[in-house]
Amino acid sequence: MSVFIGVDLGWYGKPTGLASVVLDGAGIRLRTVTRLESTGAILDWVRTEIGDQGGVVGVDAPTVIRNAAGIRPAERELNKDFRRFHAGCHAANLGLPFASRVLAFSHQLEEAGFRHGANMQAKANGRFQIEIHPHAASIRLFGLTRIVKYKRGRRAERAVELARLRGLMLSRLPEGDPPLTLTLPEIPEKGPTKPVEDQIDAVLCAYIAAHWWWWGTTRNTVYGSNEDGFIVVPGGERSP
After folding, report:
1. How far apart are CA 95 and CA 68, in angstroms?
2. For residue range 115-154, what is the model confidence (pLDDT) as tens digits?
3. Measured between alpha carbons, how far is 48 from 31 in angstroms, rounded to an integer?
4. Most buried of 97, 110, 117, 157 (most Cβ within 10 A)?
5. Above 60 in pLDDT, residue 100?
6. d(C-alpha 208, C-alpha 56), whole Å
């Protein structure tokens, strides 16, 4: 049995959204959704969810950074395809303040047996970690012409857009390949939306991890490499 973990990592030490998805008959099923803050608690949760199984951890954060400055090749390649959808990535380099935290998390996953999976074959045995970019994934998975803009703006605007993303996931992912059985937290009428946002993002991360395991490069695009950093996006082809 394989387990697929989604990690919407808090790049600067803020809480992290987490989700686990498991195989279920001819499809997959959302098993657990939560939100934790300390790195130790997050890693303990991952170890508990994975148990003695194999699987893929999909991390919404850089997992490999070699460049001292500028932008990684993976980001440059992805931006070429997705900037027109407003879905480009931010630059990652060793000079940025989040670099040490995200790399430490990736190294701790490696210590738990999750090796970098840019070259992973579909349905491979073992444990792997991949970097993902949910905005780009949502363009491909849901056939959008622009990203769902739930990250910035006034609270009311963000809530509307987050509800839109939630609706897309609830309606489209059960019809995906693989199909996902899921429920998602409700958007609160008042108060902060970030706790729910982190959990919904984590579910999408877990689905992308499962899609990568299920199809490999047949129905996913890999931007970059294990050596210099890579990002997995469902579907599509690269721009020439």
Report:
1. 6
2. 999 999 999 999 999 999 999 999 999 999 999 999 888 9
3. 13
4. 117
5. yes
6. 10
Task: Give the Cα-Cα-Cα angle 64, 140, 233 (nearest 5 degrees).
Answer: 15
Token pair listed for 8:
């919407």
CB 35 within 8 A of CB 235: no
Q: Residue 51 in 3-state DSSP?
A: coil
Residue-level pLDDT at 238: 57
Residue type at 97 in one-letter notation: P
Which of 149, 43, 151 has its CA nearest to residue 106? 43
Of 82, 110, 106, 123, nearest to 212 by C-alpha is 123
HEC readout, 112-158: CCCEECCCCCCCCCCEEEEEECHHHHHHHHHCCCCCCCCCCCCHHHH
Torsion angle (degrees, nearest 10) of CA 186, 192, 196, 201: 130
8 Å CB contact between 211 and 120: no
- Cβ-based neighbour number of residue 126 at 10 Å: 14
Q: State how far the Cα of 63 lies from the Cα of 45, in Å rounded to an integer.
A: 19
Residue 82 has which token pair? Answer: 């997705």
Q: Which residues contact 143 (CB under 8 A, 6 or more apart)?
A: none
Q: Which residue has the higher pLDDT, 90 or 225?
A: 225
pLDDT tens-digit profile of 189-214? 999 999 999 999 999 999 999 999 99
Q: Determine if residue 190 is left, alpha or beta; phi over 0 gives left, psi from -120 to 50 gives alpha, anything else beta.
A: beta
Q: What is the pTM of this model?
A: 0.96
